[in-house]
Design goal:
The complex is a heterodimer of chains A (243) and B (59). Chain A has 243 residues and is an all-alpha fold. Helix content of chain A is 77%, strand content 0%. Chain A is built from 7 helices and no strands. Chain A is globular and about 75 Å long. The termini of chain A are far apart. The longest helix of chain B is centred in the middle third of the chain and has 38 residues. The chains are: A mainly alpha (243), B mainly alpha (59). At the A-B interface, helix 2, helix 3 and helix 7 of A face helix 1 of B.
């Protein structure tokens, strides 16, 4: 079966119906294993002590805040270039989830920063660019909810999403380009990770669990949005009958 | 508290907020899905079909 075959919403709903519970179950198992590794196996950091446990939720949330936006940018291309019927559904449903993960990255970062840096917030390049990402998510949600016609809303949202994608490399490389209080990349970097395996493994398991959660929520939200559009179409039929 | 060191409050607050927001997302998706399925079933019970399902013509 080709990718384009999944452009049929009915086929997509069937696929989601079969796969969603398995993805949700795998996510739950990954969280159970990840939390066990974090609280029972992973050592305290030699400088930060147990406060390093915030890393295991902060870093996956920060990764997902960007991953979610890249997913939306891919969907925006699908909307504008290929006019894939599920692309704008995907973008619309990813936005609130991405906003939630960005909010969590900001809040957990602040809660980690206060005991380690001595401050809740600094206007450095990494923190500010992530705050901009959060505001962009809110703007995109507001834009797509404000325009009533789904096709116009999707196109306007897609254009804004693609304009905003420039912020993603800025977030990623901000710690290299500017002098920031935020530490440089320590997992995905040239020359390999600087994090010890005893901490890296729990971090990657938690990242996998959070990614599974994103996929589960995204697919479920897409299913809901397809049903919402069917209901809208049926209401239009009902209204035309009544005339 | 002491097991997690002097900054245990920050750790608990971080995990607590993450759990609360994730629970909110799961609840939103679940309740929204339940509501939409109920609405769809109600419309179908009243014999309303989309144009694509009723051969392109509204009945």
């Amino acid at each position: 079966m080709r990718l384009i075959d999944y452009a049929n919403p009915t086929r997509f709903l069937g696929l989601v119906g079969v796969s969603l519970k398995w993805i949700a179950a795998a996510t739950a198992i990954a969280f159970a294993v990840g939390l066990w590794l974090v609280f029972m196996v992973a050592p305290a950091d030699y400088q930060q002590g147990e406060t390093v446990k915030i890393m295991y939720i902060h870093v996956p949330c920060a990764w997902l805040s960007m991953f979610c936006y890249v997913t939306m940018a891919g969907s925006a291309l699908g909307t504008l270039v290929w006019r894939h019927p599920l692309a704008d559904v995907s973008a619309k449903c990813a936005a609130p989830i991405g906003a939630a993960f960005t909010f969590l990255a900001l809040v957990t970062g602040s809660l980690w920063g206060k005991p380690m840096w001595g401050t809740w917030w600094v206007w450095d390049a990494r923190l500010t660019s992530v705050l901009v990402l959060f505001i962009m998510y809110l703007g995109l949600i507001a834009l797509t909810e404000t325009i009533e016609d789904p096709i116009r809303a999707a196109r306007a949202g897609a254009v804004l999403t693609l304009v905003g994608v420039v912020n993603i490399p800025i977030i990623k490389f901000s710690v290299d380009w500017w002098n920031t209080l935020h530490q440089p990349s320590s997992v995905f970097r040239m020359g390999g990770s600087t994090v010890d395996a005893s901490m890296l493994v729990p971090l990657l398991v938690m990242a996998g669990a959070f990614t599974g959660l994103f996929v589960t929520l995204h697919l479920a939200a897409m299913r809901n949005e397809i049903l919402r559009r069917r209901i809208r179409a049926m209401r239009l039929v009902e209204a035309s009958r009544a005339e | 508290m002491t097991m997690l060191g002097p900054h245990a409050g920050f750790i608990f607050a971080s995990y607590g907020i993450v759990v609360a927001v994730i629970a909110g997302l799961v609840l939103w998706v679940t309740l929204d899905g339940r509501g939409r399925r109920r609405e769809l079933a109600d419309l179908e019970a009243r014999g309303i079909r989309r144009r694509s399902e009723s051969g392109g013509a509204s009945r």
